[in-house]
Amino acid sequence: MNKYQAVIIGFGKAGKTLAVTLAKAGWRVALIEQSNAMYGGTCINIGCIPTKTLVHDAQQHTDFVRAIQRKNEVVNFLRNKNFHNLADMPNIDVIDGQAEFINNHSLRVHRPGRNLEIHGEKIFINTGAQAVVPPIPGITTTPGVYDSTGLLNLKELPGHLGILGGGYIGVEFASMFANFGSKVTILEAASLFLPREDRDIADNIATILRDQGVDIILNAHVERISHHENQVQVHSEHAQLAVDALLIASGRQPATASLHPENAGIAVNERGAIVVDKQLHTTADNIWAMGDVTGGLQFTYISLDDYRIVRDELLGEGRRSTDDRKNVPYSVFMTTATVQGWYDRRTGQREWC
Asked: Which positions fall inside the FAD/NAD(P)-binding domain (predicted)?
């Protein structure tokens, strides 16, 4: 069995940054990543970088196929750079495979041909989140239905894009594809558009989208999805919509099921998020969790701050905690980018970020 002082599961922002820091401090580190297409994490490969590259090119009215090619070039460059930033360090082993807990110190890494068993004095979980697939008949079997990762790899621009879900992912893709030239329809099950936002912000975003030609249908309770004459048929309670491609943008949930955290005594909540305290300890005393897998705000900079908390405990004074995060600004990237984080009309609280 290979033994390490630190085993990090997942190549995300917190995990890769912690790996380099601990290796420079003399620790022997293993970083396990289940997909070689995810070196660098969500932001590099299927999140911030590819989407913002396409948002920019869509605003410049770049040809869609050329924009996808440029996005791939950017992502491939950064993925390769992220891999070598770790793999070329003498104290770090990058291991491809799917990790599964045996106990709180041991992991089985499932690999083609031969599995590995790894022992870690300390273990850090940074497996991120995955798309939520709602239980709608036909959603997993109908051609032309994509999650956000699949939509980022289309070979041609859909004439009509349907988006199931009117949250931030849906809004960004709606604006982007409208700028590329697609007809776009958002199907939102709620009676309010962006219900978590202040009404003036949500209404302004809706106006911007409608000015781009985007249709927004509220109270859209989809009952089933089918395929007919090369189109995706979306059947709702009162209407039917035919689109060339359908994006499932129903949110993201922590990616923990394949880890079998229960084998290590790690508690998870009802959504599969790993339960942590203010310093990101799990219920196993030698295991921490960082980033989206803890079920909090899913932003790269939150994952980076999680790294700072863990680093301070391991190599610093141990004073940092999640209590230090008071205000977290965020933005929605569309034709007119929106930023929120210092005032909330619903609570009447004004706080500077």
From this structure: 4-301
